Amino acid sequence: MSLAPRAVLVHRATEYEELVARHGSHGQAAFFLSSRGQDLHEVAERHHRAHRTLAEVAAAVPLAWRQARVERTDLDRFLFAPQDVVVVVGQDGLVANTAKYLAGQPVIGFDTDPGRNPGVLVRHRAADAATLLRSASTARADELTMVEAVADDTQRLVALNEIYLGAAGHQTARYRLGLDGDRGAVEPQASSGVLVGTGTGATGWLRSVWQERNSTLGLPRPTEDRLLWFVREAWPSPATGTSLVAGELSAAGRLCLTVESERLVAFGDGVEADALELVRGQTVRVGRCEERLRLVR
Question: Which helix (H) or strand (E) holds 73?
Answer without folding.
Answer: none
